[in-house]
Amino acid sequence: MTLCTTSMPGGINIDCLAYPAPVANIILTTVAEEFTLAEIKKLAEWKEKIQEDLTVWIPSAVEGYENTTDDPAINTTPRGRKITRSKPVPSGVFYLSANFCDFNEILRTLKGTTLRAFFVLEDGAIMGYHGINSAKYKGFLVEATAVTKGIPMPDAVENSFPLYLNFKHTYEFEQKFAIMPDWDVQAELPVLMPESYALFFVSATQATATVVVDVFERCGDAITGLT
């Protein structure tokens, strides 16, 4: 095994010179979730994972984000030559379009949780990780942490609900893909998310094994007629 790489990059595609579009949303999945090429392009497949398997979650949108990835570590020798010593692992903070109640649920569940994350780009592409020797497409492995500063912000209120994503591996980004489905990802996926309810304990009767709760649409009105 040699430590010195001597190969050159293998050609270019001069007919496809396109930079990646900014991030419009993120999709979080369980670690084991993966797709074939046909599945990731199929809206029905995403619907099943969101509504039945409950292995995929997507917020309404990302209002903005900051790329917090460190710069590469570069050493300078006594003779002035520079050597790149490290490849930083990507990270970012993503400001979600949400409400207090939905974000409280995110705070309760995303506490350094290991998941996988796809990016939804503004041009409609889904970006994720595709291993060289794999036929499967998946999100980047990530540690997801929601943190609140508590006090409402005096300005930039759209940054009130931050989600911190610290990715696990640089090499996954070296094998990334961008797939453009023939349907609008940002328009179609968030509306597939199950409706969220909040339950509040009222009373319990031991003799009849009865528990009384109030049920509300999260950050909304009371729900009646449930059994």
How many whole angstroms does the radius of gyration measure?
22 Å
Number of strand segments: 13
Percent helix, as a range, is 10-25%
Number of helices: 4
Global shape: globular
Structural class: mainly beta
Largest sheet: 9 strands, antiparallel
Overall residue-averaged pLDDT value: 89
| β-sheet strand percentage | 25-35%
Unreliable spans are none
The arrangement of helices and strands along the chain is EHHEEEEEHEEEEEHEE
Give the N-terminus to C-terminus distance in angstroms: 67 Å
Provide the fold topology:
Elements: E1 23-29, H1 37-40, H2 43-53, E2 56-57, E3 62-67, E4 74-76, E5 82-84, E6 91-96, H3 100-109, E7 111-121, E8 126-129, E9 140-146, E10 162-167, E11 176-179, H4 185-188, E12 197-205, E13 210-217
Antiparallel strand pairs: 1-2, 1-7, 3-6, 4-5, 6-10, 7-8, 7-9, 8-11, 9-10, 12-13
What key phrases describe this protein's structure?
227 residues, mainly beta, 9-stranded antiparallel sheet, two-stranded antiparallel sheet, 4 helices, 13% helix
What would you note in describing this structure?
This protein is mostly beta strands. Helix content is 13%, strand content 33%. The protein has helices spanning 37-40, 43-53, 100-109, 185-188; strands at 23-29, 56-57, 62-67, 74-76, 82-84, 91-96, 111-121, 126-129, 140-146, 162-167, 176-179, 197-205, 210-217. Strands 1, 2, 3, 6, 7, 8, 9, 10 and 11 form a 9-stranded antiparallel sheet that branches. Strands 4-5 form a two-stranded antiparallel sheet. It has a two-stranded antiparallel sheet with strand order 12-13. Strand 4 and strand 5 form a beta hairpin. The model has no long low-confidence stretch (mean pLDDT 89).
